[in-house]
Design brief:
Number of domains: 2
Number of strands: 10
Largest sheet: 2 strands, antiparallel
Helix content: 40-55%
Radius of gyration: 27 Å
Order of helices and strands: EEEEEHHHEEEEEHHHHHHH
Strand order of the largest sheet: 1-10
Distance between the termini: 66 Å
Number of helices: 10
Length: 370
Amino acid sequence: MRRSIRAGLSVLALGGGLAAFYASAPAKAAPAAPAAPAAAPKTDAPAPRVVAVPPPGYEKVTVAGHTALAEPNDVAWVKQALTDTKPPPKNGITPADMIQTLVDKRAALTKQMVTDLALPDDKAVNEFLDTKVIETLKKLDELRPPVFYLGEPRYHYNGVANAAAVDDSLPFSIDKPMDDTILPAFYNDKDAADVRAKNLAAGLQNFDANLAANGTRQATPSVFNLFVGFIQEKQIDPLKLKRDQSWLGSGVANFLAAKYTAVVTGVEKNRMLQELTSEPNLFPVSARSVDLAHPLDEASMKASVVPYYTVSMQRKATAVVAVWIDQAGEAAIPRTLTALRAKMPADGAALVKVIQEATGADLSKYLAAQ
């Protein structure tokens, strides 16, 4: 007979049988007095973290960072399984590796960012690297979602299949405490204790490896988005570009973010640019059809088309900036930013002239619809 085991990470629950496993939010204190009505809760207040409550009759077993709740008869072999669980082997460049790379290359990266963005000093860059990039990579490196195996509310009966069904997805977040998550594991109660322990240890090691790989997979897009946000919010937004000038902001932000992300993560810049500018065959709005110097007004489009048009604008803008830099060199960006900070052009056509005067490149044909 196959039985279930509850297992997890920061709170690891393991046990035999199919005893109920509950999840609930923390209890709230009763109001001090009924005379005064309680204030209405803020709609933007974060929901309380969901905490899994183990069933009665289970014992806690903790070994090397894994905690288990096991039925008394299972404690010995479960403890052995936790003891035998080895750290997962390193696979690829981890967030910790990226932090070290940033430490090693920080001076050069900071200098490059100051130059590219034509900044007066490196204060904003260093603050961003410390509070955003490094902190995010630390969170990804330390990502340990509280996981339990088996239980409610993620289990339900699938009448079509005549079997129990379970949602085995793991919701990840580095911005807030994660809810406890319940996932399944099974063992055969006819197996000897040492076989159960061996199989469970292997399963936990594989699970730990998958968690580490997930943090690594999220690192590159997370770092890229952070660089885009810094460039867009701190450097581009103050220019107050008009709609027919906005291509410059999104294109420069994407291009430079790919450049800086490559330094931290080791992913090639050209590979990221290829992904940013490649268009699926059946994409509803072709980037080639977009005239960046004369973009359509959102009010003139169907609401369902607007997101696709926006993506195509950004895709084409990135491609145009890549061509521009290839022709005029990377000094073209700081020269243009300096010129725009001195005097903003009136419209998109005037922006093209400023770019041509500052860098010697005429981008008109690349901006036009094709």
